[in-house]
Amino acid sequence: MNAKIFTSSHEISPLTMAIIASRDKEGRLISYILDESAEYVSDKSPSKLIDEACMFFGSSLKGRQEGSRVISGFTHKVPVSIDPASGMYFLPTYSPTSPKCSWLSHSHVDDVIPLTEGDTEVLFINGKTITLDVSYGSLTNQVRRTAQFRYRLNSRLHHMGKGMIAETPNPFDAPNTFKNERD
Question: Is the dihedral of CA 67, 68, 71, 77 positive or negative?
Fold first, then answer.
């Protein structure tokens, strides 16, 4: 991957397709950030960037993981919803504590293609591809688990939205309970 822009602070957004773990020339953990129209390199780990994105939306990676576990029942490598309103669901390729862990945006993944043993190609909806050092079975499972989690969370949010609308009184439908002081 040819990173074009170095950044020490990069906001993960709905345009972010992947955050890929790598090492710099000195062996330090860095991230390649693949957005729809640009590529960046950051001196932060992929999981640190995900944590910062979660914090921007009022939680943390740990908090999002705990919520994901409750909703999905998954116990490890849980996908997270950074912001469900904008479709920001990300899946880890390894344990988020592993230096090998990259994160993929579920909304951008079009297909997962097996390559040699241990390598998998990810095809994004815009036609770009990346090759990851993760097995086809593991990555396919992560994509499916993220779809299941996404469905469950969206169902909850949709149900809550209906309930809130139904339970919220319309002030314009309420009878006038205030008397004019002159009456």
Answer: negative
> Which of 8, 154, 173 shows the shortest CA–CA distance to 72?
154
116 — alpha (psi -120 to 50), left (phi > 0) or beta?
beta
Domain assignments of the chain as residue spans, ordered by start: 5-166
Indicate the residue type of 43: D
Place of tokens 């390559």: 115
Per-residue pLDDT tens digits of the chain, which is 183 residues long: 554 666 666 789 999 999 999 999 999 999 999 999 999 999 999 999 999 999 999 999 999 999 999 999 999 999 999 998 898 999 999 999 999 999 999 999 999 999 988 899 999 999 999 999 999 999 999 999 999 999 999 998 887 765 444 444 444 444 444 444 454
Q: Name the amino acid, one letter, at 28.
A: R
